[in-house]
């Protein structure tokens, strides 16, 4: 049950970051900067990760120690990404 909750939480967090990446203001800024290709690559990787997490729902992954470690790393990275996107959004609004 703990692993199922971790997968669900990771899926939710990745979805939240993807929603922020899909924001029109963020997308326009990224397209106009030199970050365009990195932005698209990061977004693609998050979509791929979200697909893998969604595919694992309903499967018994409780005995997969590798997945447990990766979920911890993913959670930390998604938190960091959300913080960076919040800061970016703040600075973009200040620049207007």
How many β-strands, per DSSP?
Answer: 0
Portion in strands: under 5%
> What does the overall shape look like?
elongated
If helices are DSSP runs of H or I spanning 4 or more residues, what is the number of helices? 4
Q: Helicity range of the residues?
A: over 70%
Mean pLDDT: 79
Q: Whole-number radius of gyration?
A: 15 Å
What count of structural domains? 1
Largest sheet: none
H/E series, N to C?
A: HHHH
- Detail the poorly predicted runs: none
Folded structure, characterized:
By secondary structure, this protein is mainly α. It has one domain. It is built from four helices and no strands. α1 packs antiparallel against α3. The mean pLDDT is 79. It comes from Triticum turgidum subsp. durum (Durum wheat). This is Rx N-terminal domain-containing protein.
Topology overview:
Elements: H1 2-21, H2 24-32, H3 36-56, H4 65-95
Helix pairs in contact: 1-3, 1-4
Provide a concise account of the structure shown.
With 96 residues, the protein is mostly helical.
């Amino acid at each position: 049950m703990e692993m199922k909750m971790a997968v669900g939480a990771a899926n939710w967090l990745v979805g939240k970051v993807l929603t922020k990446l899909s924001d029109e203001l963020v997308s326009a800024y990224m397209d106009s900067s030199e970050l365009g290709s990195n932005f698209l690559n990061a977004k693609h990787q998050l979509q791929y990760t979200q697909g893998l997490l969604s595919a694992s729902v309903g499967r018994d992954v409780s005995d997969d120690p590798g997945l447990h470690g990766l979920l911890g790393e993913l959670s930390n990275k998604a938190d960091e990404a959300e913080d960076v996107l919040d800061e970016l959004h703040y600075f973009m609004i200040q620049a207007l």
